[in-house]
Amino acid sequence: MMPFTLQHAGSAQEAITVAAQGARYIAGGTTLVDLMREHVELPTRLVDINALPLEYIAVDGDELVIGALARMSDVAAHADVRRLHPVISESLLEGASPQLRNMASIGGNLRQRVRCPYFRMLDAACNKRTPDSGCAAIDGMHAGHAILGTSTHCFATHPSDLAVALVALDATVHVRGPQGERQFPVEDLYRLPGDTPHLEHTLQPGELIVEVRVPSLPYGGTARYLKVRDRASYEFALVSAAAALDVRDGVIRQARLACGGVGTRPWRMREAEALLQGRPATRATYEAAALATVAGATPMPGNRFKVPLLQRTVVRALELAGETR
Ligand code: SF4
After folding, report:
1. For residue 273, what are the domain limits?
2. Mean per-residue pLDDT for 125-153?
3. Which pLDDT score, from 0 to 100, does residue 97 have?
4. Alpha-carbon distance 137 to 75, whole Å?
5. Residue 237 has what pLDDT?
6. Measured between alpha carbons, how far is 186 from 171 in angstroms, rounded to an integer?
7. Domain membership flag for residue 163
8. Distance of CA 178 to CAs 13, 157, 170, Å?
9. Whole-number Å distance between alpha carbons of 233 and 247
10. Phi, psi angles (nearest 5°) of residue 254
11. CATH number for position 248
């Protein structure tokens, strides 16, 4: 590991000031420390934010509020989270091993980096790690890569399960930085790779994720997270789906659907949601919506299987949401 300095911040303002000078935030460190050990990232200055009072989980009016330093395991087990938005709990439980869930923070989960194997191989070309160096995955292994939002410069899949659930729920992320505070949809935290895949998020220099707010969803109790992967635990999604349905008298009044494992960022399926609205809650309806989720997919030879797998996963997730009351 290369030498670095570590500063412990006693306040958010202190942390932001140090980060604005080029330091990297560290909380659980479950991604960053790995990348530093592997020399994929070599920050010379870290600012430890674990002392900041951002571990809360609370209900504020009709919003669920999750502090950026709340640990994945605490959020997954919290009674209000399980009652109001079980899809958040499910996505967290599916998202990492128990040891990682105990360490990893919500803010860090949203900022975790891609799992493309070439990103971590220093002798492989990777535009995300080293801009304009090429992309070894194009002619290499890409079974786990994205089929939506891809570019010729990068098609690595966004890795966070939690982000998929939050995007389906219209959650917002609240940040504080040198220019003050702002908030925006979690969906807008992530950039498409385009020709600058090394730029993954929309945070400004020094901006700190403070909390995530999840608005109430009357049918949030129906929301389910379904994750398909190569093995049963401690594995990233080949395909995942967060689905919620408001079904009354056999008719779908409203729907939410977002998918993971297929996009270069968490992928909200708005066309499919529109197709579901006003239709009977039947398998035929779910299959029509699933077909809409793969419109515009750009698979490579090694991940072509994700097109039918995405459709089957969406159908099953919608069935589960439709069965949940
Ligand atoms: Fe790097 Fe993206 Fe290509 Fe993977 S897909 S090697 S992360 S540029």
Report:
1. 223-323
2. 97
3. 87
4. 35
5. 86
6. 6
7. no
8. 8, 31, 26
9. 32
10. -145, 160
11. 3.30.390.50
Q: Is the pLDDT of residue 325 over 70?
A: no
Task: For residue 79, tell me if it sits in a domain.
Answer: no
pLDDT digits (tens, 9 = 90+) for 292-310: 999 999 999 999 999 999 9
Ligand 1 center to residue 138 CA distance, Å? 8
Span from the CA of 193 to the centroid of ligand 1 (angstroms): 10
The single-letter code of the amino acid at 51 is A
CATH of the domain at 17: 3.30.43.10
pLDDT at 86: 95
Whether the CB of 286 sits within 6 Å of ligand 1? no
User: What six digits make up the tokens of 315?
Assistant: 């159908």
Residue 119 Cα to ligand 1 middle (Å): 6
Ligand 1 pocket residue status of 186, Cβ below 6 Å? no
Cβ contact 311:287 at 8 Å: yes
Q: Which atom of ligand 1 has the smallest separation from the CA of 135? A: 3
Q: Which ligand 1 atom is nearest residue 136's CA?
A: 6
Q: Tell me whether residue 62 is in a domain.
A: no
The total domain count for the chain is 2
Atom of ligand 1 nearest to the CA of 140: 6
Report if residue 56 sits inside a domain: no
C-alpha 246: how far from chain center: 24
Q: What would the pLDDT profile of 11-67 be if each residue is shown by its tens digit?
A: 999 999 999 999 999 999 999 999 999 999 999 999 999 999 999 999 999 999 999
Give the tokens for residue 285. 């309806």
